[in-house]
Amino acid sequence: MFRIRTVLAGxxxxxxxxxxxxxxxxxHDQLVSxxxxxxxEVTTVPEQVVLTFxxxxxxxxxxxxxxxxxxxxxxxxxxxxxxxxxxxxxxVPLKPGMPNGAYDVTWKIVSADGHPTSGEFSFTLAAPEPxxxxxxxxxxxxxxxxxxxxxxxxxxxxxxxxxxxxLIGLGVVLLIAIILVIVFAxxxxx
Length: 190
Known about the structure:
Blueprint: H1 2-25, E1 31-35, E2 41-42, E3 48-53, E4 67-72, E5 84-86, E6 89-93, E7 101-110, E8 116-125, H2 163-189
Parallel strand pairs: 2-8
Antiparallel strand pairs: 1-3, 3-6, 4-7, 5-6, 7-8
Helix pairs in contact: 1-2
């Protein structure tokens, strides 16, 4: 009975140690908000994409750890310049002339703790078409131009490394428990 208590106490101590180590590792910065918002439909062509995080973003020389793409349905990346970091905010300018349709935003930053974090989300641009003027009005024989079909934006998703420390920690606890059982079983045979 004493050995079982010892094994259980060892497992509890190992689990507590692993969880204490894994807790700080899971504290990477997370995306708090974005403009345009994830999953939103905007009616004005955005001039920039702004991401706000839960903590200050680490600014490396030449923003080497920060990247963003804003890709339309045709595969064109509409990012018009380098990302700018200001405390917990990352901003990228967009090229003018974005057509209506769905856009996928992917981002990568370096968290304040030095670990890379990335994610993605989508938004849809549905700006009203400009009214035709007399000189640009289509003739009666011309066929109306087709407008791009509206593609529903997928639900926002974020790729996060938050689950890995927990899985690694649980694996370590299981390994320690197996080792302790083997050690105590071999002592019992002697």
